[in-house]
């Protein structure tokens, strides 16, 4: 088992976490991982680290848990129930295994932090000697856990043989980073070794000592010499002896002021505790405290030893002058000031705890250091009492654990820049790299030297040994020898580093076998260019925060040469985990002297594999061109699977194009009259009854054409605000029984019959006009009454022309038989007859009538508050008049009455609308039978909507279908590419999809297929309308009836693309996804018509023989699977959905980015499907707004954080805490930055949760601002989308199960609230609301990032100014993101309106 060199710090901490994750995934769920550390402080630190990175139940066991009282197996079983990782001291596990509460077989992995302690009869070594080794010898290696040791200094002393002992004890092999020479030479920062010399004050010179110290020493000497030996057995004797010794030590090491401060502070602290004990309920301090109090009463207090004019030494609020310190401390202060820089960070190691407290105080008070160094003490705590100090300490403990709670965090964050510490910071504790490390006292051994030096890891750092001049101590020789070994060790490291540089400087020749030439282009790949190519490939991979996309190289030494610096090396490169696992790892083909050559070999093999897999093109470059990605994404199209040159080039199109004019469907009918196959359609005009109004009669007429007419939806015509008509057209195929045939043989009409029908049609068309609009009557479509053909001539004769009004009066015609009244004075404008007025006195005749309504466009209802007066009801089915009445006094001379009854005459106002609808239906039929011939549309209804632009101003247009077609197209293409290109990473998939579905491409396919000629863009204008005439349609006569008309028109490129998507949406509404895929394939042949087959992808991992088999993953707990609500047949998909791009320890699993790409499209489709089922209550713009709000990344992230099961009560025997199964906890990731950002986001979630939930459950506005403040990392929403993608693949494309999971998240419940018409939720973004309120005024949002101030931990903030018409109306600051700044500013701007 490998034994990393450094402890759990930075990258090595990540390495241990990764090792634990790997063990968790492959070990059985009832096996534990036990992490051991020598101290409680280390246990606490490592527990926090592991708890932040591991999605399993973790338990910390220390003496504070009273483990020594757990004397029954049931208690231990309850404590460890469900626990996968335990963190404890060595002693806890030693005792538990000694009493049989924990068995060797329960452990999967043992991790020894600071493994150099595993010697002799230490608790760490007892675990190995008493339990591990006997079990291994008796039952074999499978019966014992794996071992991982962590140490920066595996040798405690200077004897290298100690290393072999530790290796034997741990049954492990020590491994140091001998490989990666180039990286070591570049990034390893060896500190500069420096000595600070000082001359110590004479020990016997106590004449200059302060009165307090002299009094203490005198009292102690009197106690020892003046009493009998039994005094040594008195209570508190040992405590006082230590106090005197430490006081003298402080005087020697720091000086006179320091000794007095230490003594007075200790006495004051003791007396305060003694008074508290006396005032307690029992009122009796123990004998030891009483003895100490009696002794200390002989020492003068701070107030008595100071003059009345000078402040107490304990009053630290008084600004101090230069403090009297010893020469050693003077040397330290001078060197600190010399070394100071604005970004200074340093550590001072001392031996004794008392020295730590007093030195930190001196540096904080002395004017030479107090303004430069933000100093803090740091000592270790083996166990704690009520005060936080050592349990047995009654005197001289000036520090407590509470004051140190945030010390290390402050140091890491830069709030403190200098720590004074004991050896507690030598090993294990995570401390930031320092620029200066000072050994105030001599390192005790080689281990201390190495570990202290390792804290100076910054560039140009310094490691300082304070050395006494002419040291008279008897230990000088021993330390001199140790110092020599230390310096030799340092020089050996430097020498090995230089040797590594020398080896890497060799230039090894690369063989010709490491060359690849692409024949089609001549592109050449060599070993020398492979590394640059590989780095370029990785550089264009999808960028993901917290993930490193650089290739990682490693090296293996030849067999038996692992410890030889000159060993031959074989290189391996591992690509980022977004690359397909089958080609993610590549190994070099040879063995090399230098790492540089081994890297070239491995890089060549990797890039060659990428080329073979089709991930780089024929020019050996990444597939970054849309054309390459689209052509590579094809499949399933057969002979049609091509993209021609005019469709595939990437030049952008102008926003407006010159396209074909709208196809005229009447041309075909005009030609058909040369050999007609007569078809008759029944046109029925039915007035919709008015409430409480009289019943009306229908009018019917026949439409005769030379070809069959398509079916047309019933047409509503709006006469006025109250009267509407429904016009229905039944083709002869729809009529039951059919319309009576003309009295001629076959289906032909004679020339006379055709002439009669044309004249009747002319009568209808001309009747409502003052003058005939044109004289030609060779109409393409012919109208006549519903009667036998042989009766039509007589009927025509009876209705042609006009009669004088007097004649009409004399004939006593029924009002319903009266034609339109015309007055020459009024230019024969048509009027509707009302009644006659006869004056018997002068025998004059007048006619009262209404002017025929000027409205001609009956397809649209009158706007509200129309100035036209309401119509009077009529008993007939004719339209009511819509203008004021008038009388003509000169009826005999000026008025005429049409022979055609007015009811029949007004049919001429309906014919333009009828033919306009027929024209559109003919156009849709033509499209259905040509471009869309392979799509089984049953009717034209959906097609007609899809090809009608909003500019046509019809009742329906394509925008609604375009909204759904966009989602269907995105979903279909995403599914196809996901299955078709299993090796493509998310970047290629996204670019490939964009290349297929982008508007530029859709515009081109619309032009290529001739779709532009079928798009209806021009509004119906009845006043300019002309009936289709044969003579006008056939011009010149020999023109091909089916050719695209030569006329041109301007059209937006977006309209062309929108119509393609609208037709896809139309197919989806008529025949679901199967029919939609047929439509997609019609325009985009590379997208197959068949459903994407996910079964191959679901079983991909099992069938790939080049990959390591996927082990069963025991991190995927049954609780998680149950909470997801879907049972995976292939759990590797679930594992992939939880794998963040930063996860590097599992080479067999790809990151979730591919599944997230697919899940995004599936989520979009599910939301669109719900909106489609809801009906047409919302406009396309409103649906777009709703969808964007629902799939908003911050909302998805919030639901991800909310998607948790629990909390459930944890075992009562373990703690009173609870546990929650949260989806985000199972994300497989690594990196401190990600964890810190994640935890910060979770804190924001906890703060904002109540307000967001209130808005989601009962608010009437979408929570834009709280979600913007949440500012969630992208990986939270990615987890949701990747989980949807995984379910979709595992279920082989079942949208229903995906919808069930999305509903389980709570997303669809909120969508239902939004769609609830009774209590709707406003989802419009505040910016859009402000723009609407501003109307024509310009609105600008000026966002600015405010960088954090140096020396602070406050993150950068954002400000936003809102300018309305160029004038500032709102300013906000202190926002956590630019989005939050804009939303907050927009909300405030709304209030200004």
From TrEMBL:
Molecular function as annotated in GO: ATP binding; helicase activity; metal ion binding; ribonuclease III activity; RNA binding
Entries under Pfam families matching the protein: DEAD (PF00270), Dicer_dimer (PF03368), Helicase_C (PF00271), Ribonuclease_3 (PF00636)
Species annotation: Penicilliopsis zonata CBS 506.65
Obligatory cofactor(s): Mg(2+); Mn(2+)
Keyword set, alphabetical order: Antiviral defense, Antiviral protein, ATP-binding, Helicase, Hydrolase, Magnesium, Manganese, Metal-binding, Nucleotide-binding, Repeat, RNA-binding
Domain (RNase III): residue spans on this chain: 924-1072, 1117-1292
Native organism taxonomy: Eukaryota, Fungi, Dikarya, Ascomycota, Pezizomycotina
GO cellular component: cytoplasm; nucleus
Keyword Nucleotide-binding (UniProt): yes
PROSITE patterns the UniProt entry points to: DICER_DSRBF, HELICASE_ATP_BIND_1, HELICASE_CTER, RNASE_3_1, RNASE_3_2
GO BP annotation list: defense response to virus; regulation of defense response to virus; siRNA processing
Record-annotated Dicer dsRNA-binding fold domain positions: 530-630
Segments of skewed composition (Pro residues): 861-882
Protein's UniProt name: Dicer-like protein 2
Annotated SMART domains: HELICc (SM00490), RIBOc (SM00535)
Protein's UniProt keywords contain Nucleotide-binding: yes
Segments for region (Disordered): 627-658, 861-895, 1093-1113
Superkingdom classification of source: Eukaryota
Domain Helicase ATP-binding: 16-172
Family statement drawn from the similarity comment of this UniProt entry: Belongs to the helicase family. Dicer subfamily.
Biological role stated in the UniProt entry: Dicer-like endonuclease involved in cleaving double-stranded RNA in the RNA interference (RNAi) pathway. Produces 21 to 25 bp dsRNAs (siRNAs) which target the selective destruction of homologous RNAs leading to sequence-specific suppression of gene expression, called post-transcriptional gene silencing (PTGS). Part of a broad host defense response against viral infection and transposons.
